[in-house]
Amino acid sequence: MVELRWQRWILxxxxxxxxxxxxxxxxxxxxxxxxxxxxxxxxxxxxxxxxTRALVERARAQGLEGCRRYCAQLQRVFARxxxxxxxxxxxxxxxxxTLTVLRSADVDAMALPGGRLLxxxxxxxxxxxxxxxLAFVLAHEMSHSILxxxxxxxxxxxxxxPRNVRRSVADMYVEIDYNYTLLKSLExxxxxxxxxADELGLLLASAAGxxxxxxxxxxxxxxxxxxxxxxxxxxxxxxxxxxxxxxxxLPLALRIFAAARAAKTASATSAHRAARS
Length: 277
Description:
Layout: H1 2-13, E1 15-16, H2 41-61, H3 71-86, H4 90-94, E2 98-102, E3 109-112, E4 116-120, H5 121-127, H6 131-146, H7 149-159, H8 169-178, H9 180-185, H10 187-207, H11 212-215, H12 217-223, H13 239-248, H14 250-276
């Protein structure tokens, strides 16, 4: 029983997938390599690490850290996605890729720089996610890390501020937190990042073997809900816009899904023949 509890604790607090990265088939290379970004990835990772700690520590203080009901599903889906994520860019290849699970309503699903993902069992329970829908959600968040959207947003924000003032990443976060005009100006950048994460997430999950049409049921459910009052800053596009763009990518996603299934079948056939010989 002690060993079982220890394994459960590891799964609940930070599920990390490691291992060698195989050569990528052409259909699995889906992302671009971000370039000309200010600050180093390490600087952005370090500056954002406090956000992760604060969320986890608050959940821990409330007794809401770790998974209980969805551990097996989360581990199964995350483990299938990580090898595909590592094929996308040189930096993604070396990220630790951890998934921290909380039982707090403060978080739905989110990505932080450095391959750190957070997800809440409250969100999973409310959304009734099957494996394909969960794969889309996780792959979407992983895509933010692969494409370094946080660094891209910070770089864009710096271009909007006086250039004769030297600023650290921490300084930029203070500007974004307290400068409403700057934050409002970042709306198009943040929304473009969500569209990109949707597209790459759909393709990544398809390459991992999850049916594209089933993945889209997550966004379809959101698009079916009435829109509430517009927030002061809209960081995400409307669900209906996201769904429309994703449907445009379905033919490509279906081709990638078919290629992944064919590769899996060929691998299984080869292994069966080798076992018989």
